[in-house]
């Protein structure tokens, strides 16, 4: 069966009454759950596995795929409106989405997020359909050395996340590195920086850090400034209509990050979180006015929203073609495949073409449903901003506490959440950016593991990086990223 015939058979599954109904249910449930801090796509898919026992495997998997990309999309709403990312992949969305909401442009911010997500998701589905066999070969060619080089490239952009002092950005990143090393060392089994506390043996969860630094820090700021007169601007939803300039500003980031996000999503272990950060950093570096980022930039919002949805589809490449999960969520999806008696891998397209092509075709339908479902709902979703400030603060605190407690059912995590809230507040007070902290926290653990695996393979020789063309190229680009601004600054100093 060629690709076109396969896609047509997939559309038969996706456009059947049952298929349309369950795609809609998956997308709707995923969007709703994505808005709730702590209840990400992993929890949603895990909860729905028992529900799908008696269902047709193709319909069940189409629905769970809808939950996945629906949750990524839904997470952007809480990031934009409350500065409380629902899922890790939407943290970068808050950098410019929340400032837009505070400026009375919440409606426009949600519309940009919806359109960027739709475009990124749709383009990546086309790429998924065309290049799955080729990209699966690229994915397995990435070893520890290449992963370390990719993480290194991401970390070189820490200075670009600084909102003023680069020194403060590096201090913030160092704190992120320190926090991510807490817990049991996966390679040696020894505990690090746990101070004898068994609650720290498994490390600190990403959601604890993200909600503390962003959501609770924002709550602390609102409480401290409670006597300031509200000008009403932050409660103004604004128009959903995008101007010609907005569309022009969006077009570049959306077109570039649709491809970049998909490629990063293809790499096992990378996922939507890393794709969104790299997209944001890349666009800030090439922008004519990088100083606008972090203050409500259209480009700064469109780039991560495009990339995280594109990466969501990209993560299906190693899952469907190799049977290797590309992210935590696709690992749970792999379990769902096996529970339903379906073995993903090279033979899936031959043995079960209705499932392989049904999932791909359902993504076209799901992305359209996401757009049609969410654009009319934006005025209603935006009404969150009209909730009185004391009640809104209470709701953010409650949802953050519930979201963190639902991960481990451990009250110690709640204390950690409050601690990171205080840290985030003081960082904000003394102008230390939180973005480098969270970027180092996300990349640091994977970077350390990849580095140690690389040196283990090479018996401690750094020459292995010279023997890997992809790794060498990525490290070279990273070094240029560091050196170019320094040389440029030195040249300006000499001229002045």
Automatic annotation (TrEMBL):
InterPro entries: DUF112_TM. Coiled coil: none annotated. The chain crosses the membrane at residues 20-46, 58-74, 110-131, 137-159, 166-184, 204-225, 259-281, 322-343, 355-381, 387-407, 414-443, 470-487. Keywords: Membrane, Transmembrane, Transmembrane helix. Residues 20-439 form the DUF112 domain. This is Tripartite tricarboxylate transporter TctA. The lineage of its organism: Bacteria, Bacillati, Bacillota, Bacilli, Bacillales.
């Amino acid at each position: 069966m060629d690709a076109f015939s396969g896609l047509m058979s997939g559309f038969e599954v996706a456009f059947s009454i049952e298929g349309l109904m369950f795609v809609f249910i998956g997308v709707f449930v995923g969007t709703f759950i994505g808005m709730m801090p702590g209840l990400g796509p992993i929890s949603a898919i895990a909860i729905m596995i028992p529900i799908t026992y008696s269902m047709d495997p193709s319909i069940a998997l189409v629905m769970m795929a809808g939950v996945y990309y629906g949750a990524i999309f839904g997470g952007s709403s809480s990031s934009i409106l409350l500065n409380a990312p629902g899922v890790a992949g939407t943290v970068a969305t808050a950098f410019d989405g929340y400032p837009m909401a505070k400026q009375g442009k919440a409606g426009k911010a949600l519309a940009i997020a919806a359109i960027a997500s739709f475009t990124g998701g749709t383009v990546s589905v086309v790429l998924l359909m065309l290049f799955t066999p080729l990209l699966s070969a690229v994915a397995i060619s990435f070893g520890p050395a290449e992963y370390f080089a990719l993480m290194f490239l991401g970390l070189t952009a820490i200075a670009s996340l600084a909102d003023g002092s680069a020194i403060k950005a590096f201090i913030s990143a160092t704190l992120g590195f320190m926090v991510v090393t807490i817990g049991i060392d996966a390679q040696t089994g020894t505990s690090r920086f746990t101070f004898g506390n068994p609650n720290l043996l498994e490390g600190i969860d990403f959601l604890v850090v993200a909600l503390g630094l962003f959501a609770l820090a924002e709550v602390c700021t609102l409480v401290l400034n409670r006597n300031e007169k509200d000008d009403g601007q932050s409660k103004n939803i604004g128009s959903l209509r995008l101007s010609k300039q907005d569309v022009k500003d969006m077009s570049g980031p959306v077109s570039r990050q649709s491809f970049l996000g998909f490629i990063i999503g293809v790499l096992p272990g990378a996922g939507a979180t890393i794709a969104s950060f790299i997209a944001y950093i890349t666009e800030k570096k090439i922008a004519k006015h990088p100083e606008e980022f972090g203050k409500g930039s259209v480009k700064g919002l469109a780039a991560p929203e495009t990339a995280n949805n594109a990466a969501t589809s990209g993560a299906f490449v190693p899952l469907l073609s190799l049977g290797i999960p590309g992210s935590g969520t696709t690992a749970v999806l792999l379990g769902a495949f096996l529970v339903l008696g379906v073995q993903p891998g090279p033979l899936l397209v031959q043995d079960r073409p209705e499932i392989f092509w049904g999932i791909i075709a359902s993504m076209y339908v799901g992305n359209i449903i996401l757009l049609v479902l969410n654009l009319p709902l934006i005025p209603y979703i935006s009404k969150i901003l009209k909730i009185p400030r004391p009640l809104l603060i209470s709701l953010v605190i409650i949802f953050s506490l519930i979201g963190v407690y639902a991960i481990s059912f451990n009250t110690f995590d709640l204390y950690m959440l409050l601690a990171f809230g205080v840290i985030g507040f003081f960082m904000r007070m003394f102008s230390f950016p939180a973005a480098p902290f969270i970027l180092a926290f996300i990349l640091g653990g994977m970077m350390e593991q990849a580095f140690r695996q690389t040196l283990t393979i090479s018996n401690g020789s750094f020459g292995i990086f010279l023997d890997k063309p992809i790794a060498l190229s990525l490290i070279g680009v990273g070094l240029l990223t560091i050196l170019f601004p320094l040389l440029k600054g030195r040249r300006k100093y000499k001229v002045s």
